[in-house]
């Protein structure tokens, strides 16, 4: 999805992912995948496997160990330690005179605070030790597509180009606090990358949904059970008379009691994979004296990630959401590329080295 967001002006020199479902999705959507895609553990990739010198290396390592909802194992966690496999390659490329001029590390906002901020400091230290200047932006996909999906993008660069700098809307309180926790020498290497805010989003969740007669609705008794799990405040959000109201629903367990929480602000909640106890997101549609519910479809999930309907999804909802839920929203990447990365690399034709 990062490659889709970067767009046709970028060429991909190498891509890697360990997961067979995601690997199959990549191959299904990129005709040139056989030329550069490798499926396997990033720790087993050798510098000689990476051709040439890339302008950009992009790393979206698994987020579970950074998630605020998880155990917060941080960079030492079994999955997110994939980052260090990626960094091992960057160090080897640097020794060979082939280090990328820019790097983006994308992850959940918990990256900023995991292990009391020590993980973020370690990431910044790695960049600084290799001569990169760096900064971070917190961008919510909700600015581009009707899904609440805040993510951190740490951008490091050796390039000069015309990269804009200065404070912007994507320097949130969490970014400020992460900066304040850094030691003096790392703060000296920090850049407040300036990325302007996009125009106001003009679509809502309802606009991306399939036609009512083209989806499978739950039986009324199942919808009744779902509504019974809502607090009075949540149910009141659906009491709109004849007006059609679309709500996104997550079911959670609080103090051992299952609860359903609905939002009717035109946004879906953050899409997730089906692992780790998280449930697939539901929709509730109320109006004309009737309330119906159903699961969000994979195609709707893909649209919420900013993917075109031509994007080929895996067969089966579980596999499709495994790909979608771990992805990065493509319009966010496009905005970041056009407003920061491409000006940063303006003195060269851009190419991309993608890693797990």
Q: What's the SSE blueprint?
A:
Elements: H1 2-6, E1 11-17, H2 20-29, H3 33-36, E2 37-39, E3 56-59, H4 82-95, E4 102-107, H5 118-129, E5 133-140, E6 150-157, H6 173-181, H7 184-188, H8 220-228, H9 232-236, E7 245-254, E8 257-263, E9 282-287, E10 290-295, H10 298-304, H11 317-325, H12 330-344, E11 351-355
Parallel strand pairs: 1-2, 1-11, 3-4, 3-11
Antiparallel strand pairs: 4-6, 5-6, 7-8, 7-9, 9-10
What does this structure look like?
With 356 residues, this protein is an alpha/beta fold. The chain has two domains: 2-201 and 316-322 and 329-355, Vaccinia Virus protein VP39 (Rossmann fold, 3-Layer(aba) Sandwich), CATH 3.40.50.150; 211-296, no CATH class. The chain is 29% helix and 20% strand. It has helices at 2-6, 20-29, 33-36, 82-95, 118-129, 173-181, 184-188, 220-228, 232-236, 298-304, 317-325, 330-344, and strands at 11-17, 37-39, 56-59, 102-107, 133-140, 150-157, 245-254, 257-263, 282-287, 290-295, 351-355. Strands 2-1-11-3-4-6-5 form a seven-stranded mixed β-sheet. The longest helix has 15 residues, at 330-344.
- SS class: alpha/beta
Which CATH class of the largest domain is shown?
Answer: Alpha Beta
Number of strands: 11
Strand content: 15-25%
Rg (CA only) = 21 Å
Identify the CATH homologous superfamily of the largest domain: Vaccinia Virus protein VP39
Element-by-element helix/strand order: HEHHEEHEHEEHHHHEEEEHHHE
On the 0-100 scale, what is the average pLDDT? 90
- Share of helical residues: 25-40%
CATH topology (fold) name of the largest domain: Rossmann fold
């Amino acid at each position: 999805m990062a490659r889709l967001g970067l767009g046709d002006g970028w060429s991909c020199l190498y891509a890697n992912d360990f997961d067979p479902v995601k690997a199959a999705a990549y191959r299904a959507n990129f005709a040139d995948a056989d030329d550069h895609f490798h499926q396997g553990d990033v720790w087993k990739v050798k510098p000689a496997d990476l051709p040439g010198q890339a302008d950009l290396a992009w790393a979206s390592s698994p987020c579970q160990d950074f998630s605020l909802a998880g155990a917060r194992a941080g960079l030492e966690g079994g999955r997110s330690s994939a980052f260090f496999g990626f960094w091992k390659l960057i160090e080897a490329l640097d020794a060979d005179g082939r280090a990328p001029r820019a790097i983006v590390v994308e992850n959940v906002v918990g990256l900023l605070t995991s292990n009391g901020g020590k993980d973020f400091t370690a990431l910044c230290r790695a960049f600084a030790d290799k001569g990169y200047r760096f900064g971070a932006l917190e961008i919510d996909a909700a600015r581009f597509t009707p899904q609440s999906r805040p993510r951190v993008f740490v951008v490091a660069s050796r390039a000069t180009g015309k990269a804009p700098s200065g404070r912007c809307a994507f320097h949130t309180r969490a970014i400020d606090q992460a900066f304040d926790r850094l030691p003096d020498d790392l703060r000296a290497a920090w850049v407040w990358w300036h990325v302007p805010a996009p125009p106001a989003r003009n679509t809502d969740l309802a606009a991306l949904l399939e036609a009512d007669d083209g989806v499978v609705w739950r039986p009324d008794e199942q919808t009744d059970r779902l509504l019974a799990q809502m607090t009075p405040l949540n149910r009141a959000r659906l009491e709109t008379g004849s007006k059609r109201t679309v709500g996104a629903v997550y079911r959670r367990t609080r103090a051992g009691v299952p609860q359903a929480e609905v939002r009717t602000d035109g946004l879906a909640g953050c899409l997730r994979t089906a692992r780790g106890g998280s449930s697939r997101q539901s929709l509730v549609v109320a109006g004309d004296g009737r309330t119906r519910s159903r699961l969000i479809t994979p195609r709707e999930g893909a649209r919420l990630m900013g993917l075109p309907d031509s994007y080929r999804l895996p067969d089966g909802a579980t596999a499709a959401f495994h790909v979608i839920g771990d992805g990065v929203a493509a319009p966010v990447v496009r905005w970041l590329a056009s407003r920061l990365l491409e000006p940063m690399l303006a003195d060269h034709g851009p190419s991309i080295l993608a890693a797990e």
